[in-house]
Amino acid sequence: MIRNFLFIISFFIGIIFISIIFLPSLLMPKNIVIYGGKLMGHWSSFCLKFFLSTKITIKGAENINRDQKFFVAAS
């Protein structure tokens, strides 16, 4: 219960902080916005691993075509 509470607090404070820092980047080049999105992904991964000891596995990454746009949906 304590780990869950610490996860929720740190996760949402981090996401809010990153969102506020990268808000002006919406007027900047696309690469800066993409960097902010990657940073949010790394923060989410860190919080899941550190607080909840969750193992993250990515299967089939070698099958993704890097030349085309795609949408990823997780169940």
Q: What does the model show?
A:
This protein is mostly helical and 75 residues long. 57% of the residues lie in helices and 0% in strands. The protein has two helices and no strands. The mean pLDDT is 90.
Please sum up the structure shown.
The protein has 75 residues and is an all-alpha fold. It has helices at 2-21, 30-52.
Helix content: 55-70%
- The fraction of residues assigned to DSSP E strands is under 5%
Low-confidence blocks of residues: none
Biggest sheet details: none
Overall number of strands = 0
Q: On the 0-100 scale, what is the average pLDDT?
A: 90
Structural class: mainly alpha
User: Radius of gyration from the CA trace?
Assistant: 15 Å
Helix count, DSSP H or I runs of 4 or more residues: 2
Helix-strand string: HH
CA distance, first residue to last residue: 25 Å
